[in-house]
Amino acid sequence: MIKSRFDHELAKKIVRAVPLFAGFSDQQLSSLLEKSSVYAYDRDEVIMMAGEEARQMYIVLKGQVRVVDLTADGQERVMAFRHRGDCFGDVGLLDGKSDSATVIANEPCRVLLISKAVFDACFLEERDALLQVIAVLCGRLRESWLFHCIIGINDAESKIRATLSHYSKTLGVRDTDGVIINATLSHQSIADRVHITRETVSRVLRKMRNKHEIEMVGRRFKLLPLFFETYEKSDLFRALKADLDNHLEL
């Protein structure tokens, strides 16, 4: 980890798109950035270790990080990926407890670090800001429960369809004839996320390409209309939707 420079206006644009800061004025965002620091991390460098005292929150400005649970023998169980514009570490600042997950750079990245003092000044005295925090936490709850359900599915192709569909909603950019997932998702990262092998992911994605359900735009997946038609007619789509709705009503 080294302290790094990052374009101020680009950083402001990225932070403004984070739901937590959606209601901030230009002046508030500039003040936040002036009081915070940007750091560069190399691939596989630990950004935040499980059990550490919560002293800051993080916003990904460039690159991708993975949220993992480390087993007793040092193996990683991938719980989530965070991309440009995603934040983490904020829950510990709210409840004063250490985080239960470790966050590692999945590729070279730049991350904005916001101290607890700055976080408290921004959020704990502003009702609208607190509502944004609640909205973000609810979104993470939905994602965690969704992938809990996906991992329990026995069919590998169904796991991959559900995963791509989810990322099309959270990271998707609509194109003239489909949706581009605006993040680099490797076959290995998908495999890690839903607990299957990389070879299985490659086989299923090749099948989807041959059926013209997906295509690649550079290193990004583009989901075509047939992908959504097939998925939304499936029993899996209806089951996941019902399961998620029922869980969040409890």
Automatic annotation (TrEMBL):
This is Transcriptional regulator, Crp/Fnr family. PANTHER family: CRP FAMILY TRANSCRIPTIONAL REGULATORY PROTEIN, DNA-BINDING TRANSCRIPTIONAL DUAL REGULATOR CRP. Coiled coil: none annotated. InterPro entries: cNMP-bd_dom (IPR000595), cNMP-bd_dom_sf (IPR018490), Env_Response_Regulators (IPR050397), HTH_CRP (IPR012318), RmlC-like_jellyroll (IPR014710), WH-like_DNA-bd_sf (IPR036388), WH_DNA-bd_sf (IPR036390). One of its GO terms (cellular component) is cytosol. Keywords: DNA-binding, Transcription, Transcription regulation. Pfam families: cNMP_binding, HTH_Crp_2. Residues 154-227 form the HTH crp-type domain. One of its GO terms (molecular function) is DNA binding. Residues 20-119 form the Cyclic nucleotide-binding domain. It comes from the Bacteria. SMART domains: cNMP (SM00100), HTH_CRP (SM00419).
